[in-house]
Amino acid sequence: MHASFPVDVDLALVGGGGAASLVLAALDRHGVSGLRVAVVDPVHKRGQDRTWAFWGLPGDDLDPLLSASWSQVDVVTAAGRRVLTLNPLRYAMLRSAPVYDRAAEAERRLDAVRISVPAGDLHDDGQRVTVRDPDGRDLVRAGWVLDSRPRRPKRPGRTSWLQHFRGWWLAADRPTFDRQRAVLMDFRTPQPERGVSFGYVLPVDDRFALVEYTEFGPELLDDAGYDRALRGYADLLGLDLTALRVREVEDGVIPMTDGPFESRPSPRVVRLGTAGGATRPSTGFTFSAMLRQADQVAQALAAGRPPVPAPAYPGRHLWMDAVALRALDRGHVGGVEFFERLFDRNPPERVLRFLDGVTSPAEDLAVMRSSPLLPMTGAVLGDAAGRLRARLRR
């Protein structure tokens, strides 16, 4: 807590989770100095509360923080197992504790002010932003605010799904897991009536791994449903749960929607993370875009520019995602078929780069050609009609 309010700073981070932690580390890494920084969040994040899995080129500054990484991953369907060689990329697992530790060290080096109070409204007069608490008291006056608190889309999406999951960190007393390969997607799980499900396995070593069940779809499960699905997936893997210990449990719900997120709600407020459009609508993947946002913010501030990152994904990718979500939601194409064709008809590196939003237009056309033509054409026409109706209503 700070003794005297409001605190006057150049930059305020509202929300102290993954997005803000990456920004703090990036400010330190890019040598940003002389900047007065405040972090406004009632909780100071520490320890293990989530796991991020992502792909990218090896050799970046995250390498020392990784729990594990793989140059090969498996995609499994009822028809068999496909081994994907990812070179030059690698698939990586990053747990939250080292990210929060690095952010805390960066916060100390930046001499940032931490305000352990919930943030309420933000008042932007075009010159300064006032951050208020829920009771309306002024906490901070800042030149810029980076707000990573969860937000709903600016408008409801034509399709709104969720990526929801539960994972068990399983420990064994003897070698049980294949340390050399991760399972990226295993579609042998029972498929929901509406949506797609899969399991995956991220081994830290041969005795410790994250085994997770994930669904993309419109409805959540209850606790018993997630545990039942995980037990079923463990059976598919041939794991004897009586011989394993569940060290930790991870749950999550991430929006998958073509509803637009407002990344710049006012002149000096910038939203990051899911609220700033970092979540890929067709998959729920978020981390790589958050990392890009953090780096762009820090580079801009180091150069004396406004801390406004580029859009997380190209507009054409958001359109493709809207079409894919519609096709899956309306049953034009099955989820397993959709992802199976994606990996079967494209080099693994192209698929992963596409999911990260960094492919070229030519690569995007190749990805589109791998989709079922007639069902996706119907989804394109339906999406166009839906956009027209939405514009007429507005």
Brief rundown of the structure:
The chain is of the alpha/beta class and 394 residues long.
**Number of DSSP strands?**
17
The shape, in one word, is globular
User: Count the helices. How many?
Assistant: 9
In helices, the fraction of residues equals 25-40%
Note the beta-strand portion: 25-35%
Describe the largest sheet: 7 strands, mixed
N-to-C SSE series?
EHEEEEEEHEEEEEEEEHEEHHHHHH
Mean pLDDT: 93
Structural class: alpha/beta
Low-confidence stretches: none
Radius of gyration: 22 Å
Distance between the termini: 44 Å
What does this structure look like?
It is a single chain. By secondary structure, the protein is an alpha/beta fold. 30% of the residues lie in helices and 29% in strands. The strands form 3 sheets. Strands 1, 2, 8, 9, 10, 11 and 17 form a 7-stranded mixed beta sheet that branches. The protein starts with 6 loop residues before the first strand and ends with a helix. The mean pLDDT is 93.
Q: Topology of this protein?
A:
Elements: E1 7-14, H1 18-29, E2 37-40, E3 51-56, E4 68-70, E5 72-77, E6 80-85, E7 90-95, H2 96-109, E8 113-115, E9 122-124, E10 129-132, E11 138-147, E12 160-172, E13 182-186, E14 196-205, E15 208-217, H3 223-236, E16 244-257, E17 269-271, H4 287-302, H5 315-329, H6 335-344, H7 348-356, H8 361-369, H9 373-393
Parallel strand pairs: 1-2, 1-11, 2-8, 5-13, 11-17
Antiparallel strand pairs: 3-7, 4-7, 5-6, 9-10, 10-11, 12-15, 12-16, 13-14, 14-15
